[in-house]
């Protein structure tokens, strides 16, 4: 679709990213050099979280994918996740078979799927929910991989400090291992392709949770 309807998608993507016509950045080991710990003194950052979305080449995206292919994606990803190193080993929790204990654990860690959204339902993304969906969680609770949530896969790294470099390194490590075995949907023009057009490119999000003491005491706080 990105190729067939390129003229249409170009207009939308340029709205989000004016530089979309230039070669899009992809994640490489050398990128680690420029990533820093944003709060070495641990004075402000409570949590850092880095997310990267990927879709498998050769499969339709979730809005129009059929049940058989959705099941195949789940099986394929689970097979390849077995090749993660021991320090990233963990368990896979199927959404359709999740226990209350597992639910509470994922919720506490911030790894639980969000509530089914109306726009996801209308777009067909939530079709067959919760079948063919699940969460892989590493034993140390720092790596999480969502399967068939909005995209085929979302890799999440989380730390309870400001060391974004270690978060990035973890995600990059998972991507590198999987890319040796799986071809992801990628365009030389757009970058990595995702269901949400706002994520096309590196398909990466960075979230930082801060504590800002005395922020409310600022006289201009109520004016914002």
Defining key terms:
two-stranded antiparallel ribbon, 224 residues, single chain, 5 helices, alpha+beta, six-stranded antiparallel beta sheet
Strand content: 15-25%
State the helix count: 5
Taking the sheet with the most strands, its summary is:
6 strands, antiparallel
- Uncertain segments are none
Strand order of the largest sheet: 2-3-4-5-1-8
Q: How far is the N terminus from the C terminus? A: 42 Å
Helix content: 25-40%
Radius of gyration: 19 Å
* Morphology: globular
SSE arrangement, N to C? HEHEHHEEEHEEE
Number of strands: 8
- SS content category: alpha+beta
Average pLDDT number: 87
Could you please describe the fold and organization of this structure?
The chain has 224 residues and is α+β, with helices and mostly antiparallel strands. Helices cover 26% and strands 19% of the residues. The chain is built from five helices and eight strands; from the N terminus they run H-E-H-E-H-H-E-E-E-H-E-E-E. The strands form two sheets. It has a six-stranded antiparallel beta sheet with strand order 2-3-4-5-1-8, covered by helices on one side. Strands 6-7 form a two-stranded antiparallel sheet. The longest helix is centred in the C-terminal third of the chain and has 16 residues, at 164-179.
């Amino acid at each position: 679709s990105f190729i067939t309807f390129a003229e249409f998608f170009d207009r939308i993507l340029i709205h989000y990213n004016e530089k979309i016509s230039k070669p899009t950045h992809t994640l490489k080991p050398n990128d680690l050099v420029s990533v820093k710990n944003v709060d070495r003194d641990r004075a402000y950052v409570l949590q850092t979280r880095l997310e990267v979305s990927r879709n498998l080449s050769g499969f339709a995206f979730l809005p129009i994918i059929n049940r058989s292919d959705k099941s195949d994606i789940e099986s394929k990803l689970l097979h390849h996740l077995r090749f993660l190193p021991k320090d990233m080993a963990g368990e896979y929790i199927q959404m359709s078979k999740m226990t209350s204990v597992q639910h509470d654990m994922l919720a506490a860690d911030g790894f639980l799927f969000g509530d089914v959204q109306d726009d996801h339902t209308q777009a067909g993304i939530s079709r067959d929910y919760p079948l063919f969906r699940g969460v892989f969680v590493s034993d140390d609770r720092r790596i999480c991989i969502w399967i068939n949530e909005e995209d085929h896969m979302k890799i999440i790294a989380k730390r309870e400090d400001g060391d974004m470099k270690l978060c990035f390194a973890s995600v990059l490590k998972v991507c590198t291992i999987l890319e040796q075995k799986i071809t992801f949907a990628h365009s030389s023009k757009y970058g990595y392709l995702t269901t949400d057009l706002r994520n096309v490119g590196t398909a990466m999000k960075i979230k930082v949770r801060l504590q800002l003491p005395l922020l409310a005491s600022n006289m201009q706080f109520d004016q914002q």
